[in-house]
Amino acid sequence: MATPISTQPRKQRKARYNAPVHFRGHFLSASLNKDLRKTHGTRHVRVVKGDTVKVLRGDFAGESGVVDEIDGTRCVLYVHGVSVKKADGSEVPRPINPSNVQVTKLNLKDPKRKERLGEEEGE
């Protein structure tokens, strides 16, 4: 699937909704903080479960927490400590768009991810 040439919002939305799984990973990327940018030599990275992020926009701006879950179909993150109360008093996690967060600490347990970030460091 190529990126749509059209600038019409409806066609841009349709392209995102109908994007195949291997393209949806690009929608789940977030910027790195300044220290990590210098260390790894990149501005943004795909967010994975276990990364520590800081919310930059919305009702929870300034909150930090670990990513508990990632919904690849809806392209949203669920951050520990970011939740809202329902009318019955129960707490539910609030979905957050990855563009509204900044990664402050990376989860480097995956050797492939560690190697990929290490390669970018050497360039």
Describe this entry's structure for a reader.
There is one protein chain. With 123 residues, this protein is α+β, with helices and mostly antiparallel strands. The protein has a single domain, classed as SH3 type barrels (Roll), CATH 2.30.30. Helices cover 28% and strands 33% of the residues. It has four helices and seven strands. The longest helix is centred in the last third of the chain and has 12 residues. The mean pLDDT is 91.
Briefly characterize the structure:
With 123 residues, the chain is an alpha+beta fold.
Helices and strands in order:
Elements (H helix, E strand, L loop, with lengths): L8 H9 L3 H7 L1 E4 L1 H7 L3 E3 L5 E4 L8 E8 L4 E10 L5 E6 L4 E5 L5 H12 L1
Parallel strand pairs: 1-7
Antiparallel strand pairs: 1-2, 3-4, 3-7, 4-5, 5-6
- Tell me, rounded to a whole number, the average pLDDT: 91
* CATH top level label: Mainly Beta
Shape: globular
Give the oligomeric state: single chain
Largest β-sheet summary: 7 strands, mixed
Task: Give keywords.
123 residues; alpha+beta; SH3 type barrels; 7 strands; 33% strand
